[in-house]
Amino acid sequence: MTILSVEGLVKEYRRRWQTTFRLEASFTVEHPEIIGVMGPNGSGKTTLFELITGSNTPSAGRVVCMGQDIHGVKARERDRLAIHYHQSYQLRRFRRAVPAFMLERANSAYPLVHLFDEPQFNTQDGYIGFMLDFFRRLRGDGRLVFVCLHPTARYHIEIMREICERFLFVSGGGVVEAPDFAALAAQPAVRAYLGALAE
Question: Does 9 have pLDDT greater than 90?
Answer without folding.
Answer: yes
